[in-house]
Amino acid sequence: MSAVPAPTVPAPTVPAGRFAGLLRAETHRFLARRFLRVLLVLTLLGWIGALVIGLLAFRSPTPDALAAAQAQQQESIATSNAYREQCVADPSRPADVPVDEYCGPAADEQNTPVSLFLQPAPFSLVSDTDDGVVSVAAVGAALAFLVGGTFVGAEWSTRSMVALLFWETRRPRVMAAKLLVTAVASAVVGLLMQGLWLGMAGLLQAVAGDGRSTPDGFWSQLLATQGRGVLLTVFAGLLGFGLTNLLRNTGAATGVAFVYVVIAETAVRALRPAWQPWLLTNNAAALVLPDGLDLSWPDDRLPPGGSGSGIVEYSLGNGQAAAYLVVVTAVVVGAGVVLFSRRDLH
Amino acid sequence: MEFRAGHGCATVCAPDRPSLEALVPAVELHAVHKSYRRRGKPPQKALDALDLVVESGGVHGFLGPNGSGKTTTIRVLLGLVRAESGDVRLLDRPIPAGLPEVIGSVGALVETPLFFPGFSGRRNLRLLAETAGLPRTRVEEALEIVDLRERADDRFKGYSLGMKQRLGIAAALLKHPRLLVLDEPSNGLDPAGIKDVRELIRRLGADGSTTVLLSSHLLAEIEQVADSVSIMARGRCIASGPVREVLAGRSTGDVRVRVPDPAAAAAVLSAAGFRVGPADGGLLVAAGGAPGRVTQVLAEHGHYLEELTPVAADLETAFLALTADPA
């Protein structure tokens, strides 16, 4: 029998791949997913469908129809303002309630647009674009949630996540690469959705628009709103990823999201309306809307017989909503990463 | 191959090869503990002060009944499961801290191959190669080794079990591993596939630069391809060494004897104090390690041997004897 020679030379080692390689592989893995292609095709089909509906629903007015509508508009404004003047002059009007709140604001061409008197109405780039941006941001956020969730969910369901650790053992790096890909992909989803909306709005304005020119500052405000819409899709993508990574199942994550939005938030609005500033959908809307979101709820603190409107008004601004969504996303994603880094994997 | 007696499972020595890799053990575990928590039940010990050393080079069989701790050991080595205490080293690096330094030299196939079902075999391998910064040519080489090039563009989910297993082995080979960990690589393979995999394992183990740690429940497979073996039971390594040494350690000392008159010979041997029984037309004699004495007794009484064969324990016998529940 002979002794085993003692190690005298360090064993040569081949280090694990660089982060760039991991990132490239994750990007290719992401892009090769069939779900993404299906989603892209469905989005384009949806866009075409919405465009067709828009072209059928809107129509540029003929000069005669426009003149008639403008006449109806002026008449409506005059009537509304006459009623308002009566209301203002009414001696029984409460003194502690603002005039605009009690009698309503004075009618003008801004709040009584001519499109109200046109059938079918024309598309208005100036009036309709913000609503479109917010709606598209909501759809983009839902898609991004699915994209992020299914990306990591497929890794867990096929257990490829475990196989990947035979190649890159530093789990936080694995997560970082996947999160980076998800964030960029979500931003691309957001940009694509906003781009598609802008294209649709331009087409509708050209074919069935109201012919109004855009006011000063319109495009800068629109781009800012769209930018916040893209930011929302990034948050949604990361939340989808984080929630699915926590639960290790896409179906479970989607179910939790559905229950939260449909049941939990509805319950909060009904039972604890003062908690509304903490609801995710309110913060999502507040992030995208140009002036944030105004919330109101009955004031429970008002004593019986006390004076005041009895309504609490709360303005949820863009910055506050963004900060809140950053915190929520960081907590959900961070919890998943920490658990992934520490758990035994089988 | 050298067997260091008296050191339990830290006993397997490398073949005499002049490579640097042979200087350090491929795998070292000392006093490793791991328990799994179970809801409403006491923790289950998976590894119980496990000591195991696998020197570099050759094929090392890793045997044990279900639940003996084989897969947990492999998962600890690959950093998927954290040991609660003890020292773990892989290619002379501490695990899990040093795993990133050596993972580029370790190929693994643990249980079922894990790939994206909707991607082709080639695409799955390319993604892994990209992760490790390996050239695409290596993917083609690995596919060639496992004879999968012609079906490499088919989707993984359309592969037979054997093809999936071969792709898993190809993935494990991508890195030109110094240590190849194969957990049940013959699962799902047809007889021809099993033969191919065995030859591949034997070839890899013989090239001097790769150590193959082969976990299998197929004792015949281990016996045919492994240079050394470790046997696990209840979270501990209960025997380890070159296969023939482990078998020798379990040898009974029985001999099979063939003589012209078995009945008379049996009477003579019984009278001389040997335990004798019938065996395949001859006699099975408990020789107690003294077959010469059997020959002598029979010759003194005029019975001349036609055959005397030591009864060697096979790995299955040794395995069953070693892993038998003491309770």
How would you characterize this protein structure?
The complex is a heterodimer of chains A (about 350) and B (about 325). By secondary structure, chain A is mainly α. Helix content of chain A is about 65%, strand content about 5%. Chain A is built from 11 helices and 2 strands, in the order ααααααααααββα. Chain A has helices at about 20-30, 35-55, 65-90, 100-105, 125-155, 160-165, 170-210, 220-245, 250-270, 280-290, 320-340; strands at about 295-300, 310-315. The two termini of chain A are about 40 Å apart. Chain B contains 11 helices and 14 strands. Chain B has helices at about 70-75, 100, 120-130, 135-145, 160-175, 190-205, 220-225, 245-250, 260-270, 290-300, 315-325; strands at about 25-40, 40-55, 60-65, 85-90, 95, 105-110, 180-185, 210-215, 230-235, 235-240, 255-260, 275-280, 280-285, 305-310. Chain B has a 6-stranded mixed sheet, with helices on both faces. Chain B is elongated and about 75 Å long. Classes of the chains: A mainly alpha (about 350), B alpha/beta (about 325). Chains A and B meet through helix 1 and helix 6 of A and helix 2, strand 6 and helix 3 of B.
What is the chain-wise order of helices and strands of chain B? EEEHEEHEHHHEHEHEEHEHEEHEH
- Give me the secondary-structure category of chain A: mainly alpha
**Ends distance of chain B:** 35 Å
Main β-sheet description of chain B: 6 strands, mixed
User: Which class of secondary structure composition applies to the elements of chain B?
Assistant: alpha/beta
Quaternary organisation of the protein chains: heterodimer
H/I helix tally of chain A: 11
Helical content of chain A (DSSP H or I, runs of 4+): 55-70%
Overall body shape of chain A: flat
Radius of gyration of chain B: 24 Å
The share of residues in helices of chain B is 25-40%
Name the beta content range of chain B. 25-35%
Poorly predicted spans of chain B:
1-8, 11-18
Cα-atom Rg of chain A, whole angstroms? 27 Å
Mean pLDDT rating of chain A: 88
